[in-house]
Amino acid sequence: MTKFLFSLVLLIIIPGIGFAQERSIQVLENGEISRSIILSKENQESTIQQLTAFYSDNGYFDVQISSTDEEPISVKTGQRYKLSSLVFELEKDSTFADNELTGEFYSVELIENRLKTEYDKFINEGYHNAELRVSEIKLDSLDRSVSVIVSREKGRITLLSNIIFKGNRISSQSYLSRLAQMEDSLVASKENLDRIRRNLISSELVEQVSDPVIYLENDNYVVLFEVKEQNLNQLDGLIGFVPDETGKGQIVGDLDISLWNVLREGNAFELQYQRLKPETSRLKLGISQDWIANIPLSIGMDFSFYQNDTTYQTRNIGLSGSYFLNSEFSIKSRIYSQSSISGSTSNFSKEPEGKKQGGDLGFNYSKLDRREVPTSGFSLDVIYGVANKDIEEDSALAFRQQRLETKVKGYIPLFEKSVLATSINGFYVIGDQFTESDLVRFAGANSLRGYSEEQFTASELLWGDIEYRFLTDQYSYLFLFTAAGVYKRPQLYSETDNSFIQKDFLYSGGFGLSFRTAIGRLKFTYALSSTETFGNGKVHFGISTGL
């Protein structure tokens, strides 16, 4: 039996600068196989020494090499050795035998890959100073086998004292640190570092986060993340043409302006205007502040105004709050007061004058691979609300309502560049009486595409769509979709009989594109409902650009 020793330290591999020159050697193995072997031209060792090392590294320890004066060089490899044992020497004079590779043909690459797997486990646990050394190799020339002994030292666990960001131009270091939610003396484990990355990405402020880089600064460990921020100062515009039965039509559209860091970091302002049809429009204003007193808490206030031609108008003011339990789950709530003003001169009004006070409680769970154009994962929104409503013309009449809203979105990767985007939406409200503002308005560009904007109202609604997306790049795609749903419109308070009750099944389909360009995201949609001919489809064009 022969025996030799060598030492190998497996640490973080840093790519070298430049490329070593190489040369090709022609050899004839065992008088039968001719092959080329690449050797380092810069290595000053003799060709025989380099070839011997090459074959030994691949388990041919009995190799014999003839003269190298001319090629091809004759090589007798001998029998290849197999791995008989791989033993790890642990701390405190204990050992561990790894039998997974026993019987495999020996090679340096085989051992290095196994050691790297073990080293990665240490890194994942937070031991960034771990060392693995091949301390001894024993050869059994009779059995043609190899025994390898590895010295393993975990070292001290790595504790992070600070977090640094690179590439941020919108948010400060201190604000991003709050979003990251890194604790003092945090163990630098993979689980903790992944959680920091998820916290940053889920904030909507950060589009991309690099892998962490850990380094020593003034005897303390620091973690560095390179970030690509997302501009939340946005202008979103949507314009649509809705043809009528005569071939003419009307222009509808949305305008949404979002401003970030208006008064201080974490402060947001939003203005939204919708023109649903002539003389029918909606205006919404909102302001919010994220991270109150270093707590993952968001508080906001909003006001909305809805004008339904000359029939009535509603005004709604509310206070909202959200608390983020982690990067995937948040709880949200809202209290509000709504007043209705009737413009009807007749006794019949879909929305008589009155007041409504209520509160909502819900949650959001999101597990998507990325926020913009997801390719896998799902999200779930659930809201439960209660409200009390009074009708001004009948002071004795007051009724209570309960409401449940759900929205589920899922993204399924089919094959390369293809994604199936699905959604299911539900709305259900129960109560003794209803006015039109108690119902959900749906259909149009932002819900059941192919129908006019908010063409229907319902107390019970269930609809969904399936959209096939072909990705042209990470942020752009072409799509085909189909949608379907059922709804029920109840008898309203001012309606005299149940002849106004409506129940129906709706479906539609269409196609379009969504492209991210230098000026922002451009989106085009052509949608057709079941009641329209191809020439009367709904056309919408949208743009979202940074300010």
Structural account:
- The chain folds into 3 domains: 2-153, no CATH class; 159-229, membrane protein fhac (Ubiquitin-like (UB roll), Roll); 234-546, membrane protein fhac: a member of the omp85/tpsb transporter family (Porin, Beta Barrel), CATH 2.40.160.
- Strands 15-16-17-18-19-20-21-22-23-24-25-28-29-30-31-32 form a 16-stranded antiparallel β-barrel. Strands 1-8-9-6-7 form a 5-stranded mixed β-sheet. Strands 10, 11, 12, 13 and 14 form a 5-stranded mixed β-sheet that branches.
- The chain is built from 4 helices and 32 strands.
- It is mostly beta strands and 547 residues long.
- It is elongated, with a radius of gyration of 34 Å.
- Helices cover 9% and strands 56% of the residues.
Low-confidence stretches: 1-20
Based on Cα principal axes, name the global outline: elongated
**Could you say how many structural domains there are in total?**
3
Gyration radius, in Å: 34 Å
Oligomer: single chain
Number of alpha- plus pi-helical segments: 4
User: What order do the strands of the largest sheet run in, or round the barrel if closed?
Assistant: 15-16-17-18-19-20-21-22-23-24-25-28-29-30-31-32
Write down the CATH class of the largest domain. Answer: Mainly Beta
Distance between the termini: 76 Å
Let me know the CATH homologous superfamily of the largest domain.
membrane protein fhac: a member of the omp85/tpsb transporter family
